[in-house]
Design goal:
This protein is α+β, with helices and mostly antiparallel strands and 368 residues long. The protein has 13 helices and ten strands.
C-alpha cells in the first residue's frame, strides 16, 4: 500500500467536505483528500455522516473498502476493525489504553480526554510497578508519565517518543529497531551535516496511523541534535526523502538551535515547508497541491495552518491574490520561478526573525 507521509506533527484542511461525481448520476466517489484532511485534524465526527450511502449509489471496490474499514473502526460503540489484533506485541495493554483514548477523541472533537488518559495511565503504571496508588501534582504529571511510558516500553527492548502530543492528541509511537548514519549536503550556500536515526519495525505509528487506517503517519521528526526517520517510508534516492524529509527536518533542527523555543510549531513548519518549495524540482507541483489540499487557516494543528500560510504567501508573491488553489495556474510558472519565490520568502522571514524588535513577536497567528 502506498503511504502518504507527514513529518513531525501533522495535518489538515476543512474546506466544505463533499463528494465528487463521475459520469453517471448514481456513481459516487469519495473525495479522499478532504476525508483525510478532516481525519488528520482529529475530527472523525464530521467524516462519518459523509460516508453514508443509499441503495442507488454505485461505489467502486476501492470506495466500498474505505467505507467498510472506517465504519468498522468508528461507527459502532467500540472498535471492530481488528486493529489491536494486527498490532500484537509486548505492549498490548498500553496500546489498548491509547487506542480507546484516540477513538473517543476523534469521535468527539469538541471535547478533550487528555486528563482521562493521564488518570488511566497513572493507574496502569501504579499497578505495573507496585506503586500503591501513584499520585502526582498537575505540574509534574507530564514528566512523570513520560518517565513511566519510556521505562515500561524499554523493558521490552523497544524504543519510543515517550509521552507527548502530535497535533491535538496525545500520541504513542513505538518501534523495535533503529540504526544511525550521518548525511552531509549543501543548502543556501551552507554545508550541513545531520545525524539521521533510521527506525524500523514499528509496533505503532500513533494516532494518525490509527485514524487514517494506516494511510497517513509521521515520516520523521527532528530534535536539536539529530533527525529521526521512518526508514520504510522513503526511497532514499528520491526528492521525497532528500527534500521533504532531509531538508525539511534539517531546517527544523537548525531553527530549534537558532531560535531556542521562540518559534511556535506552525512557525517551524512554515520555514521547513518553504525550504521544500526552494529545493523541489520534479515533486514541486505535487507538493503545492498537497499544501493546498491539506491547509486550514483555523486549525489548531501546526501543519495545516502552516500549509495555508505558505500557499497564501506564495500566492501573493506570484499571483497577487490571497490564496490560489488552482494547480493549473501554478503550472504556468516555471519551477525555477517558484523556487525563487520560496527563497525570497525564506530570506524575508529570516530577516524578520533577526530584528531585535521582533524577538517576542510571532509571525503566524491563527486566522479568525
Amino acid at each position: 500500500m502506498k503511504k502518504y507521509l507527514f513529518t513531525v506533527l501533522f495535518v489538515t484542511f476543512i474546506c466544505g467536505f463533499g463528494y465528487s461525481f463521475g459520469l453517471g448520476k448514481d456513481t459516487l466517489k469519495f473525495d479522499r483528500s478532504k476525508i483525510y484532511a478532516y481525519v488528520l485534524d482529529a475530527d472523525l465526527k464530521s467524516v462519518l455522516p459523509l460516508l453514508k450511502t443509499d441503495s442507488s449509489d454505485i461505489l467502486s471496490e476501492r470506495d466500498v473498502k474505505l467505507k467498510k474499514e472506517f465504519e468498522e473502526r468508528f461507527r459502532s460503540d467500540e472498535d471492530r476493525s481488528g486493529y489491536l489484533e494486527s498490532k500484537k506485541s509486548g505492549i498490548d495493554e498500553l496500546l489498548k489504553i491509547y487506542s480507546v483514548y484516540w477513538r473517543e477523541s476523534l469521535l468527539n472533537p469538541e471535547r478533550t480526554y487528555d486528563s482521562v488518559l493521564s488518570a488511566v495511565l497513572l493507574n496502569f503504571f501504579s499497578k505495573k510497578f507496585n506503586l500503591n496508588g501513584l499520585s502526582v501534582t498537575d505540574s509534574l504529571i507530564s514528566d512523570t508519565l513520560n518517565y513511566f511510558v519510556t521505562k515500561y516500553i524499554s523493558e521490552f527492548a523497544y524504543f519510543t517518543t515517550g509521552f507527548g502530543k502530535t497535533g491535538k492528541l496525545m500520541d504513542l509511537l513505538v518501534w523495535k529497531k533503529q540504526s544511525d548514519t550521518t548525511y552531509k549536503f549543501s543548502f543556501l550556500n551552507d554545508e550541513l551535516k545531520a545525524r539521521v536515526v533510521f527506525m524500523y519495525d514499528f509496533v505503532t505509528l500513533g494516532w494518525e496511523e490509527y485514524a487514517t487506517l494506516g494511510i497517513y503517519y509521521p515520516g520523521g521528526w527532528a530534535t536539536d541534535k539529530e533527525l529521526f526517520c521512518v526508514k520504510d517510508a522513503y526511497d532514499l534516492s528520491s526528492e521525497d526523502f532528500k527534500v521533504s524529509y532531509l531538508a525539511h527536518e534539517s531546517r527544523h533542527m537548525s531553527d530549534i538551535k537558532l531560535y531556542s523555543g521562540r518559534l511556535s510549531g506552525a512557525e517551524l513548519e512554515y520555514r521547513a515547508k518553504i525550504t521544500e518549495i526552494c529545493l523541489a524540482k520534479e515533486s514541486l507541483f505535487d507538493l503545492i497541491q498537497n499544501f493546498i489540499n491539506m491547509s486550514n487557516p483555523k486549525s489548531e494543528n501546526a501543519h495545516p495552518l502552516a500549509n495555508y500560510i505558505v500557499v497564501r504567501d506564495l500566492s501573493k508573491k506570484l499571483f497577487n491574490v490571497e490564496f490560489e488553489k488552482n494547480i493549473d495556474k501554478w503550472k504556468q510558472f516555471s519551477i525555477e520561478k517558484i523556487n525563487e519565490a520560496g527563497y525570497v520568502l525564506l530570506k524575508e522571514n529570516t530577516e524578520f526573525l533577526e530584528k531585535p524588535k521582533n524577538v517576542k513577536e510571532h509571525f503566524i497567528k491563527k486566522v479568525d
